[in-house]
Amino acid sequence: MGATGYVQVMQNQPVRLAVPQAAWRDLAVAWYENPADLATPLVWDQGQLALKQFKSVSAAKVASPPVTPIETGGAVTNEQLTDDTLTFDTTAIGVPHWIKISYFPNWHVKGADGPYLVSPSFMMVIPTQSHVTLYYGRTNANNAGQILEVLGWLVLVGIGSWRLVGWRKRKNGRLRRSASLGRGPGSGEVDDLP
Q1: Of 4, 16, 50, 51, which residue is least crowded by CB atoms under 10 Å?
Q2: Domain regions of the chain by residue span
């Protein structure tokens, strides 16, 4: 019950796994390869407060996580997906929801806690209200990268302009010297470029 399209109310409580990001992928694959484990989702614990309600497992216990059923009659309705937005309504407020879209840090949510990286590489949100909106947006790293890109282009344009002005001054100085010595542009001499 509660399963429609991309969003599903979890049937079992997820378990937290606090490991470095590099180790997450291999452990999620090990979880995924064992069909008996699929009933209990793994959520990557980066110290978020909302995840403290779930049991924690060590990397060694990924192969047999505890199964704790969620007792809810919650359902997901009115799911709408666009290129960069997923909206849905739910009656299971406070219960983890599996979002069957690949996790990426640029995903943000309104009306829920999260999104969190959950096995195998999906997202999990914990609704705080009945209407939830996930949207793909910008992160601070994106903003910093674009600022650095603009500064880089400004530096390149500045250096190019400075070199062009210097080259023109040198060329004009050579032409004046040539004219004062009686050599003109048609005398067969070629100006050196910078």
Answers
A1: 4
A2: 3-136, 140-187
